[in-house]
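Pair request: fold both.
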Amino acid sequence: MTSAQRAAGLAALLVAGLLGAVTATPALLAPAAAAPAVAFGDCPEGAVPAGRGVQCAVVDVPRNYADPDGATIELTVSRIPADGQKRGVIAANPGGPGADALDYWARRIDAFPAAFKQYDRIAVQPRGMRWSTPLDCAVKPTGAEPAPAGVKEIALRPRDDMRATCEAALPGYLDTITTESTARDLDAVRAALGVERLDYLGTSYGTYLGAVYATLFPEHTGRMVLDSNVNPGWVWTEEFAQQQVAGKQRLDDLFAWIAEHDGEYGLGNTPLQVYRNWVRLVADQGGGWYANLTPPPAAVSDLPGALPEPLAEIARDGFNGSVEQIGKVQNLTRTLVAGGTSAQVPLLGATTVATYTRAFWPNFARAMSDANADPRNIGKLLALEGASSSDPTGQVVFTAITCNENAVEPRPELIAVAAGTIASGGSAMEARANLVRAGMNCGSWRPVAKPVAVDGAALRTPPLLLQSRYDALTAYEGGPALARAVHGKLIVVDGGDHGTFGRGNGAVDGAVVRYLETGEVGIDRAEQAPLP
């Protein structure tokens, strides 16, 4: 479920089905023995860490599965071969949508249990991204003021301009960037590799992709681990609106933890004191209104700065629904809750990363403490912010998937509700949630596909699902909801880590290994991972 990862200082917003029910082509369903050989060799420069034994190959697949004999695209696949006797082949997707996949296994060799070395570990770089027939949708920034020194510039990409540019570069390709197409790509790779059945590990958006794959290809689905789950009933607008609520709770938890360790970090001995220091630092770095959060417990007097336009206009004069007014709100919404802010200052970027997992909290607190002592000392903040960086093609893929298959109708009347919430001193996170529900993220970009109705009834082994109780990026309700849809078994993990497997949590890691080896799940709850 990438979060914006570029959200205005809080949970990165992750947000992604093709042409309805399309009959699989004979090539996809051909016997494994008839599959052509795939030649693995060197990986693209910069795609994977060196010295980890990663090999890469290119597989051609249909650009549009409704036209299987038409144009093709190239997908790059990475593989780390099994050590010794091979148990099977396991594919992985890290989420997003729009996250690079080729380096997934290489970066986690030391974190994952040794049992994974018994598998060929593969990852398919999703279509539309670099190294897999990338989308070419370059759009010049518009409406963004020059950023102050130290402020990260990210181009605001008007959705209509982006769509037009993509379409002009490769007509018809953009409309195929959906979860269903990506799932069909995975099965095409499976067939090309001559593998009868894939095991699977998916995180965040990767859980939804895995569930769609299992729905379309149950006969080729082995054991499936889904970690930090997208709610299939929220695709996609409500998924991102819920992130605002969950992100607020996790930020409160972070401030409370820092307050408990005031002796070490000196940022305040109550959550409110930590929050006020955070707001001051964000404002000093140029973050402005992005710091306007309602903290625990606080009132209107705690909210810094003035209400931004056009929300001030709407709060004053009401929402009139004009093209000009909607355009202004769309720009503001993208700045606040989607993939491109023009004032993503270092502390906001680092805060976003810190909401992902508790393992980042000590580093974040130390980085904030350093900046508090010396505003020029932002090296640790920049390093932490960089943990969520992504290639520009990934940002476009994120938009394409989430707008191409968004199943939630926009509610523009909620723009006025959001403006009123902020003007009256209410929670800015609740206001952001309503801006998302208003449909401003995609604007006039209407869906071209219906999401696949997820159903795991035909699977031979029920999937294993892992879900943190206070996950800031994929809210808790996604775990039970997806478990019901795929007829899976859910382990609820305490705390709020986004991605619970491979974090040094013995109970969770042991349960995953047992499931992959036996198909059995022995627990339904686990403590959160310890701090390193």
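--- second member of the pair ---
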Amino acid sequence: MLIIFASGFALRAGTVTVAGIYSEAHSQPLMYDMDSYYNLRLASNLLNEGELSEGGWDRYSYYPPGVPLDYPPLLPHLTVTLYLLFTWLLPGLTDTAFWLPAIIAPLAGVAVFAVARSLDCDDVSATTAGLLATAAPFYFMRTVPGFYDTDMFNLVLPLAILLTLHLSLRDGDWRMAVLSGALMAVFAAAWNGWQLIYSIMTLSVIVHSLLYRRREPLIFLITSTLLIVLMDPRAIPSIPVGLMKIPLARADPFPDPYANITELQRPGFDDVLMALGPGLLLAGLAGFRPLFRDWRDSMVLPVIILWTLTGAASLLWGIRFSELLTAPLLITSALFLADLGTASRVPPGFRRKLHVAVAIMVVLPSLIISTGQYSALHPRVDDSLLDAADYIRAKTPPDTVVISNWVHGHFFAFMANRPVNFDGRLAYIETAAKRGPGYPLDPRIPGVYREYWQDRALATTDPHLADEILSMLASSGDEAYLEVLNATGDPAGSAVILGDVLAVDGSSRAEYLQDRGLDPVASGRVASTLSRRSGYVLVTCDRLIDKGYWILYYGNWNFTGKTRKPVYSTGSIVQGWPLRTSDGLLWDGERISFNGLRVSELYLVDAGVRKVEGDPQGGLVAFVLYDRNRTVVLERGYEDSMFARLVLLGDGGGVFRVAMRSRDVTVWEPIRDWNTG
């Protein structure tokens, strides 16, 4: 067990050698994933305020109006507890959070070893399976130092539940069954997907109890259910309700930001192979033979079968769920290796050598893949973003709303200590099952609407319209859209009406809305909502260049038909003169072209901006960002878009001014007075 834990920790600790993982300027380690900053904010609140959020209401997330806090509390509580215990060793809460994944995740290997030994596997087989757990590539990538998220629990606790439940049956020990139920309740406080493991265990218990009439599985089920209900009376009923609501969790008619999250894309076989590791996949599948042969009367059999089927099916929703498939395959891989080590058809001397050789071949691919991913580890945060957060925290009023790409929402909520318009919760579909009686918001909130409106503000060529959209988001969130929707009952038509009325002068909006079919009362409510003004800042950075296609695509969304895909390309400078880029942009002083297509304008951006005229008939515009070694080619119709102005040229269009700039990150504020509009 010590070998397994030490190996898993060392494998993860090696990633801290990656350049840029620590900010000297801000004296803190950097987190890889933005959800880490959400978890860190909750832990910080717990440490400093004694609760995860004020009265159970998270004002800083998806503001306005914020959202009810419905998040598994184990991670922040564990972090604060360890920090208080080891304050003498760790310089701060952030450092504790940074290292916690590397400490918790290797325990998955220890748990696998314990399960394998309880199934009579030899030490070599059990140790090999334990090492496979610590080196499983996807699990490894999401449990390195700085990946402070709930993934660290997703193998450890379910395997501990299985171990204690199996031991309770093997030894006839009801106390182990109680412990297993308690661990299930702990897991319910650790991850929002706990319902999957609970359902697998419940079905397995029912099947086993009907066949063998043992008391231990029922004790487990009663204990786990009672403890979970005590923590949250709505938790168990939400499971079937949630299953029924999954087909309803759609973005239509708005664009769906979930469609662009890489880990939620449906993976191919190669993706699955790299996420699990070839050795684990092959050994795990081979281990079903001894499972069916030797453990057909055990609770382990139905659990592993249901777990594997659920894990395989969950991959349809993205590689993110490969951890669910990893756990049962770890157990069956141990059974395969143990079966190989006792194969009577192989001579004993050769058998031992073969056993060790196969064990090495099973583990080695996962180790190679995981260590090979060191170079792919790049924090999503840098000193520029930290500088921006420092400025916002120090130089803006406490009620200022930060509007940024949703990826950076959790970061600014914690580091800038300001409410954010959009963050990693997106539509927060995890709470869909509980949006019934007692839910303090309109059940349509949160939604995916804000992705469209923010992209619309950047895609428009009208700076004043961009300000009106962002002001609406900062002051009233989704309220105006939902008011129009309540009046019309047409989701797509309501978005079109609201987009149109935002371009109308404020004094004429109520009359305009009546002309579009809204009654006077509804028109007055919408116009009044749009007249509100709240302080906000807009944060842009070069990372938006890589999202430019989606910003222009979503920002020009067609609610009544098919949305036209924009021409958009990014590249790097391959040759300075004549100018040649990696994606096919050429300029020799006379002719400007992009892969044979005519370019009408070329913007050269360095210390300033110089414009070079190209072919007047060209349908494309190119931007050469010398100081960033980036190039962008887009359609001529987007030349004056706020995306081009703010992100590429650094121009506020006379409506926004630069509040602060740190390298590629810019904080913009509207020039108008926030109080008078």
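Observation on the second member. The radius of gyration is 28 Å.
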